[in-house]
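Newbie here. two chains, one complex. Structure please?
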Amino acid sequence: MSPIINSIERSNVELTKEDFVSGLPVKWCPGCGAHAILAAVENVFPKIGYKKENFTIVSGIGCSSRFPYYVNTYGFHGIHGRAHAIATGVKVANPKLSVWIATGDGDSMAIGGNHFIHIIRRNVDVNIILFNNMIYGLTKGQYSPTTPMGSVTKTSPYGTIEHPFNTGELVMGAQGTFFARVPDNNVKLMTEVLFEAAKHDGTSVVEVFQNCVIFNDKVHAQITSKEYKDENQVILKNGEPIIFGANKDKGIRLNGTRLEVVKIGEKGVTEEDLLVHDQYQQDPGIHLMLAKMGPPHFPVAMGVIRSAMYPTYDDLVEMQIEEAKKTSKIKCVNDLLNSGDTFEIS
Amino acid sequence: MSKVKNAIELESAVVKFVGDSGDGMQLVGTLFADTTAYDGNDLATFPDYPAEIRPPQNTIVGVSGFQVHFGSKKILTFGEKLDLLVALNPASLKANLKWTKADTVILVDVDAFDESALEKSGYSSNPLTDGSLKGRKLIQVPVTTLIKEKTASLGIDNKTALRTRNMLMLGLALRVFNKRTDYCERYIDKKFGNKGNVAELNKMILKVGYDYFDKLPSEEKISFYVAQAKLEKGKYRNINGNTATAWGLIAAAERANLQLYLGSYPITPATEILMELAKHKSLGVKVVQAEDEIAGITSAIGASFAGALAATSTSGPGLSLKSEALGLAVMLELPLVVVNVQRGGPSTGLPTKSEQADLVQALYGRNGEAPMLIMAADSPADCFYSAFMAAKLSVEHMTPCILLTDGSLGNGSELFKIPDVNTMPEIKPPYAQPNTQYQPYERNPETLARYWAIPGTEGLRHRIGGLEKENITGIVSTDPDNHELMVKLRAEKVQRIANYIPDQEVFGEQEGDLLVVSWGGTKGVIRESVIEMQKEGKKVSHAHFRYIMPLPKNTQQIFSKFKKIIVCELNSGQFVGYLRATLPQFKYDQANKVQSLPFFIDELKEKYYKLLEE
């Protein structure tokens, strides 16, 4: 069996952002982080270079899930939590499509949690953009599976008493092959990361720390705001040592089995001692540690954390079909009906 | 004169193999059935097994059975009273005695009737010796002793040897019916050929059973003969309903030049459809065993959006989980075949027992007004044609369809005359043409079906979804008048399918005193009951419905020709309720049974007589 390499047909003309604007009025709240995601997608689709008819966007329910209406591609606005299952059917039935999923933290990790982990486990070649605003926006402010413990929301007036999911941890736990994280106020990084996601064969999950101006304003501010971002974010670059801080003088070092933050030049620490990011390594151990980093002791890892190569579900389906077609005696339904034990009445 | 010396000739016979779950009753039952099919008998079968995999031995709840009705005439049911009962232990005898008649031949393994087994099955005395079976033609076979004798010198351990008890009984049962063992031997070679001496052992014991007949005292040498059926010329096979459903879908995909996609989650008694389709990758069938029922149907809807002939299979409680997605499919107006192999409900109910009680769920089990095509298969072999037609109509009319079958149809089998698929109707998907001014909700003026624009096609990019859409353009709309219009258009589209389905047929006179109405898996037994009434000179006819939503166009006209109408169904009255709402001008009587058992001919006839006399 020969591997089937990504066979999505490329455009023979250069595409621009305008090719992907649907023209429908965008109805997200002014200042919503979703606008930035839309901009990044409109930037990146022409760069990816597939024929414009080969993009399909699937969504579930929620503010994020209105996304397909605003992009001029084939689009499918689904039902609560089911985007991943719908997209699985789209991709398996038609592997020549570039399939994108727009989904939120509630859609993917609460009502659609089952489908989320299983599409990742199967490694279906789709790209998931997960708008994580840590709140239910469209239903007006109830806590979600990523809402920090203790948060007061409309359904947790005394503070939530639930442990939130860390998206990256969940993705790795489900044997994810690609995980990246970006803040909604860095469209340049988001565009780069979405491009990487498109290149990856398998389920890619791009988590966007997205601000909900109405129900959860500034929930990510400790990480994403100008004031804090240098100290509380580290942008990973493959093959480079992990360095952050306003003065680029801090880094992440592997100390035994744990990560630690170190200062370059202090206690004899040099750049040589820092962990060099390898997004392609198969073993998810360090990727998981990187994904779990966060305040107060660590910065939050941004960029592509993991991008490991594994066979995709949809390729394996095609390969099994090819193989069966070669070896089976049953070539059409008449062959099937006449196979096995039959007898003639004359 | 019988065609076999000393054999009693029967027009048809009912044979049932019963034993502990795990005794191999399904296997020998199937082998017996296939032998009769191979011999040219028409037949129908019914496996009857517990929901547990290995329930406690020698208990009534653990009894597993397989029934075969075969004959020289057209066989419409899997039979009622038994001509031969093969019972491997006291519990299975006890559980099945009610299906015997005065002259039923009963084969028992006398070695299995020990004190402990009798006690566990609730017998206070041994029925073989206490006279309670008086009149029945009891043949006591020392199965265990025979097997031990035969295998003692071969160095086969007891446990392995005694696994062939079913084969010994099969051999003897074949001999009782003057059938040969060659079909079974070939099967054994195929199935156990690569397992050392297992095939040889099974064939040897099969022969021990076969030959044991000659050792019986002459008064126990009862043998039967069932002549070949006068079947239409052609090539046949034995097929069960679930396999037939799977094959019907594959045939439809081929006739539509579409790829078949099944998204499904295992559930009894529908799982076999999933397992069967998973085998046929060489025909391009794509099967996703989903993480749950919801993913099963929604992935199928995704596949349909992407241009496949999409299907999902399930049983009652699974259909409940699929409800939200069914509504989505109605809104999207995409083709989708949903097969519901009904079982006893509500909730998880009776997983291995059959019922017809999901009709209301199929018709109305969705939020909002969400009509779709509803069909019901009427026999195991008909599952092939019903699945084919469900797919054809669903694709050509761009509507989801629920095809109802049930446990007896799915697991039961009958002879299937193999059609030439190339002569079956073509299926023409209403594709949108590339680079046209495509509007997602523009419709074919005759069918009202919208056009199918497959992602990847140039110039047809569009967005659809579960929110209400503006007529023609497909833009999200909350306009009140538009919503009402769309609700009506979706309903009218389904109603117009009536123009594309055959007229309802009436079996018997086109007018008369009583019309017996039925749907789904009860066709055979109800047809038999009507035939008997007709033979008795009564003006009784039968209308069996395969198309439920919409009803055939001539339904009203048919109903108006009969003085009385009785609707028979294995539920409390779901079809009759639908008929009362749809055609309220008629008075309907009912025959209902909710025991997860089939109708019996006598109980139906009793109802008919009562009505005729009123």
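Moderator note: DSSP finds twelve helices and twelve strands in chain A. The mean pLDDT of chain A is 95. Thread marked as resolved.
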